[in-house]
Specification:
It contains two helices and no strands. It is an all-alpha fold. Helix 1 packs antiparallel against helix 2. The protein is rod-shaped and about 80 Å long.
Amino acid sequence: MKLSRPVSWFLLAFGVWSWFIWITFVKNLWKDGSGLAFDDAGDPTAYFWVHLLLAVASFLLGTVIGVIGFRGVRALRREAAADTADQSVSPSSSSSSAS
């Protein structure tokens, strides 16, 4: 399957964005002072574990989607480089001798 340039860049950007957002979320979850993530004794609550599981799943999906996008961008660049190399090589002229 071949991805278009916009789709490849979108998938790559989505993967990077997912990591950025969820790392920020986990940092905020870890420092939570509202009592949602940790109880009065400092132990993690169900809210913490559920949201940590969501973050881990999002890291995995973001990584997979980002890798697909990266591979698409890389393939398009290789294809463009091959096309440029093919165009820069002039066709060899074969001289035929008529006898």
